[in-house]
């Protein structure tokens, strides 16, 4: 039986002892052995040489196909229809459109939450926000002491106990970077560097830059406290520098520096989140378009175009370095479009709401050698799915105890039209929010059916998304069996993930009946 060998030892040029080199009689016995059986030494040397050759062949086989690089663009507040390839005739996104033409586009992709922080947590952990108890944007504010319900408990940072996507990839040999918005906690325990990223640029506790132009200074009123927070996304720069461009500079630098090793670039742009600021010459271009033909504000349209330019520059450097064919590109958004910035029609609602306009988002994946160019997938998918999909791309064994709520999308990306082994998607938002049409609620989408259970005001809404993507016709009274099925599933899911529920506020004083009716009508119309 051959002795076992450590490949690392051979690579270092240091070989283990063999029987001919070790014996009770020391050097004399070894010499005697060599003389008596001269063939032994030669045999050992031949064996060593053979093993070195086998090691080299094995290494070449194992590393013939390098691990793929992964670039994940996460755009902030980009609406489902805010790209040309998604049906917009207003926003100009030729480079993202080309990405879709070269990859696969998901029509029914969802963010894990209608606001930003929970979706980011879901992407990095593969878990529903409700399971993480991270269900609201961070740090959020205090619950309204005059509200009917008390907001549910939630954590104010990404728990360090979670084994993030970045940690899993780094453990497999990837160089990892987070460049842009973090919004999942702060010092001393919850910045990107505490969650598996080798490099953190511009990531902090805040959800927006103070300004998109250098010096990027922020001054923000902390909700419910009367206090102000002041911060700076990046401490250095130059006059007229635009944040989207600067972050792209940093991304290009990271890619260039790590071109010879596998890397994971998590690229969560601050754009196109407020403040709505863009380059003047771009704004001017969109202002020339008649108002009745605009889908959104010129400032917002110019911000979208800057993000498109960023995608173009990243693709260009990958091609220049000849690593584009070994790089997977993922492009998505953290929630629906901001109501002041863009029109989400035909979808109802906006960021913060649990109608389709608040949670349905673009998702484009380019996976060279795997995806059929220009493919379209209609299967419902969600932010949680990106974790296991990236592991699969990297050839890493799945971690089902970590990404408990995500599924590998590899087969869908490769053109397999079979449905995922999943019937339903879920959301849970036990908080108040100032965005129009936003109310505390839980949601289930099962097949083409969607149920929204709101907590304040209490209510149930049932829609058939295949027939009514705009969610205009509430079918609660017409489909009692479907309603009962989805409500039972939703209740069971909340229990299974330990979803925190809102509680009655003992200090609540109901408003006069007239005001109450007005509030309910405002909630329904979103005005």
Q: Can you describe what's shown?
A:
This protein has helices spanning 7-11, 26-36, 38-62, 94-102, 116-125, 129-132, 165-171, 243-257, 280-287, 298-320, 356-359, 386-393, 410-413, 480-497, 513-525, and strands at residues 69-75, 104-106, 109-110, 149-150, 175-179, 199-201, 217-221, 228-232, 263-268, 327-333, 363-366, 375-377, 381-382, 424-429, 441-446, 449-455, 458-464, 503-504. The chain has 527 residues and is of the alpha/beta class. Strand 16 (449-455) and strand 17 (458-464) form a beta hairpin.
* Overall 3D shape: globular
Biggest sheet: strands, sense, closure? Answer: 8 strands, mixed
> How many H/I helical runs?
15
Structural class by helix and strand composition = alpha/beta
What radius of gyration results from the CA coordinates?
28 Å
Note the gap between the termini.
Answer: 80 Å
Helix fraction, binned, reads 25-40%
What are its keywords?
4-stranded antiparallel sheet; alpha/beta; 527 residues; disordered N terminus; single chain
């Amino acid at each position: 039986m051959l002795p076992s060998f450590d490949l690392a030892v051979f690579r270092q040029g240091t070989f283990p002892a063999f029987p001919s080199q070790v014996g009770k009689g020391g050097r004399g016995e070894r010499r005697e052995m060599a003389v008596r059986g001269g063939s032994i030494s030669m045999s050992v040397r031949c064996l060593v040489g053979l093993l070195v050759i086998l090691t080299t062949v094995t290494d070449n086989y194992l590393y013939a196909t390098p691990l793929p690089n992964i670039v994940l663009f996460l755009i902030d507040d980009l609406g489902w229809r805010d790209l040309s390839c998604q049906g917009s005739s207003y926003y100009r996104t030729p480079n993202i459109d080309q990405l879709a033409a070269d990859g696969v586009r998901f029509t029914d992709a969802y963010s894990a939450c209608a606001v930003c922080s929970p979706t980011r947590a879901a992407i990095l952990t593969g878990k529903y926000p409700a399971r993480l108890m991270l269900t609201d944007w961070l740090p959020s504010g205090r619950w309204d002491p005059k509200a009917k319900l008390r907001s549910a408990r939630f954590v104010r940072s990404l728990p360090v106990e979670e084994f993030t996507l970045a940690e899993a990839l780094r453990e497999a040999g990837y160089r990892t970077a987070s460049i842009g918005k973090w919004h999942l906690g702060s010092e001393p325990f919850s910045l990107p560097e505490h969650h598996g990223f080798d490099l953190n640029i511009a990531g902090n506790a805040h959800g927006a830059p103070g300004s998109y132009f250098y010096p990027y200074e922020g001054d923000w009123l902390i909700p419910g406290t009367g206090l102000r927070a002041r911060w700076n996304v990046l401490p250095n720069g130059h006059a007229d520098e635009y944040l989207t461009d600067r972050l792209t500079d940093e991304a290009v630098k990271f890619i260039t520096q790590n071109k010879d090793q596998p890397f994971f670039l998590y690229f969560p742009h601050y754009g196109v989140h407020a403040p709505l600021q863009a380059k003047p010459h771009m704004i001017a271009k969109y202002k020339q378009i008649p108002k009745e033909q605009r889908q959104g504000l010129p400032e917002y349209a110019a911000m979208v175009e800057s993000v498109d330019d960023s995608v173009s520059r990243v693709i260009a450097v990958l091609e220049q370095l000849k690593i584009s064919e070994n790089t997977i590109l993922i492009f998505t958004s953290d929630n629906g479009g901001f109501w002041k910035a863009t029109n989400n029609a035909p979808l109802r609602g906006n960021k913060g709401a649990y109608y389709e306009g608040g949670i349905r988002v673009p998702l484009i994946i380019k996976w060279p050698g795997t995806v059929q160019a220009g493919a379209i997938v209609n299967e419902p998918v969600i932010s949680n799915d990106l974790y296991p999909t990236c592991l699969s791309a990297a050839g890493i064994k799945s971690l089902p105890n970590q990404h408990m709520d995500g599924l590998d999308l590899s087969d869908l990306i490769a053109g397999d039209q079979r449905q995922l082994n999943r019937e339903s998607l879920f959301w849970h938002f036990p908080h108040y929010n100032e965005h129009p049409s936003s109310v505390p609620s839980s949601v289930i989408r099962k097949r083409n059916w969607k149920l929204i259970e709101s907590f304040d005001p209490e209510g149930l809404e049932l829609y058939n998304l295949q027939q009514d993507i705009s969610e205009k016709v509430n079918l609660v009274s017409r489909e009692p069996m479907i309603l009962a099925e989805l409500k039972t599933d939703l209740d069971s899911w909340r229990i299974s993930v330990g979803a925190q529920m809102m509680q009655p506020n003992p200090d609540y004083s109901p408003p006069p009946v007239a005001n109450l009716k007005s509030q309910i009508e405002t909630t329904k119309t979103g005005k």
